[in-house]
Amino acid sequence: MTEEKSLNFLEEIIEKDLKDGKHESIVTRFPPEPNGYLHLGHAKSICLNFGLSLKYGGYTNLRFDDTNPVTEETEYVENIKSDVQWLGFQWKNELYASDYFTQLYEFAETLIKKGLAYVDDSTPEEIAAQKGSPITPGSDSPCRGRNTEENLRLFREMREGKYKDGEKVLRAKIDMGHTNMHMRDPILYRIKHAHHHRTGDAWCIYPMYDFAHGQSDAIEKVTHSICTLEFVPHRELYNWFIEKLEIYPSRQYEFARLNLTYTVMSKRKLLQLVNEGHVSGWDDPRMPTISAMRRRGYTPESIRDFCDKIGVAKRDNLIDISLLEFCVREHLNKISLRRMVVFDPLKVVITNYEPGKTEWLPSENNPEGDQTTRQVPFSQVLYIERDDFMEVPPKKFFRLAPGQLVRLKSAYIIRCDEVVRNADGSISEIRCTYFPESKSGADTSGLQVKGTLHWVAASTAVPVEVRLYDRLFKVEDLSVMEGDFRDYLNPDSLKVISNAFAEPALKDAGGSDHYQFLRMGYYCLDPESTPQKLVFNRTVTLRDMWAKETKKS
Ligand code: ATP
Ligand code: MG
Description:
Layout: H1 9-19, E1 26-30, H2 40-56, E2 58-64, H3 74-87, E3 94-96, H4 101-113, E4 117-120, H5 124-130, H6 148-160, E5 169-172, E6 187-191, E7 205-207, H7 209-219, E8 224-228, H8 235-245, E9 251-255, E10 258-260, H9 267-275, H10 290-296, H11 300-310, E11 317-319, H12 321-335, E12 337-339, E13 341-342, E14 345-350, E15 359-364, E16 373-378, E17 381-385, E18 405-408, E19 413-421, E20 427-435, E21 452-453, E22 456-457, E23 462-469, E24 494-502, E25 514-517, E26 521-525, E27 534-540, H13 545-552
Bound molecules: adenosine-5'-triphosphate (ATP) and magnesium ion.
The site of adenosine-5'-triphosphate has 14 residues, from helix 2 and strand 8.
């Protein structure tokens, strides 16, 4: 049986538009404001916008919504571009709302000439008071009756820099009693004597978001302008501008924002985490940003798969972060190279193995993949995980214990004979016997064991640092918590193992490679890694350990 995915509501709209001949192909846009790094919510929007134009023919523009000169930086522009490409998408045109400043200015004059906009001298407080409330109508500004000529003159003077910040604004003349607050003479232009990252000092008036966004869509002939639900009440104004300016009729459609458990996804809050040093930067692997996920070892395929699985909702919802981790695991299981790394080493001496001898044993790179192998060195002194050994094991402990047998992965079966202690009583090493005829792939020993351990030969072991990441926050749904969101940061979100031992194949670890450290999870090399000190990030655990833990408590 083939599983046919039903269409989401946007696909339904687009299929109908194409069928009705309303459009021959579609144009969408991804419109980030360059005031922060992209996060998983943006990834959702990117997959949606680019996914639709790929599916239905057409293209997607990358448009920087850079109408606010104060918060925007070129650094963000470059990062946004590389994030979109890393996710696997290519825009048709790289555009900037600021490129339309002249055109937008002309639109504003058109509205003035039509008697649909006026210059207002009211202070921000007065304008707020004039707005009324959702249950009471607003009141007209004393400047509302200005004639066209005066409005044009004043607006031009605003542009020429005759007035100070906040002294005047340009407002649309709609209806101060409108049931939709956004229609109560919204501000179109404000004065801001500020340097802009692209237009420099050419302008001292800047269009408001509502006036810039829809008009940019129209200029680009965007057919389907997809945004998040908070813009539903703006849609009426979006359409009003199109009607009054008689420009290309782009249509706005809204979907629900992506919210994820155990994290925050507002740029403002993420910026706070960065600025206050709660994380090491925008790309700290605990952050929900795309650059952080890349550094942590998430793959673009797994993020696209996640965005596909969550679908497009029309109502706000909270997605479980473990679904994202599931997608990451699924992909990494297929592509990652298997390697052995011991995090908390316990020395094992094989008493019947020839001292100084090293045997290179083949071990599979990926049982799900291409059947290639690497060579792993075996010698007399080895390391295993400290907690893979117990002196007094409970029942069903299938790992190493006195007198008990266990297999070393891709090597031999060993038996623990003796425990050697330090003066303080702690274990310094355990002494074992190996069974030469039990070699993996050629086992004629007839011995039965229930456990297989990962291990590393001591003489060739490579010391590495391993960074274990956990949830950034302690609580599932931050939106329902009282107080400051930073009160809920998880103090154990990063654990550093500074002296783990890796098998020598990891000396050649590459920046883009993904690894499964046997029994320890999925890992990748961190950009801070150097040949002298290899540093690995845990991308994700092998199983959903958190789900089990929270259920227990
Ligand atoms: P934030 O609230 O994080 O500052 P934003 O909406 O202000 O986000 P923009 O740069 O304006 O950020 O967003 C670019 C595009 O990404 C917009 O179309 C926006 O609707 C979409 N987007 C932002 N956050 C999410 C989210 N959590 N889920 C889905 N889409 C999102
Ligand atoms: Mg925004």
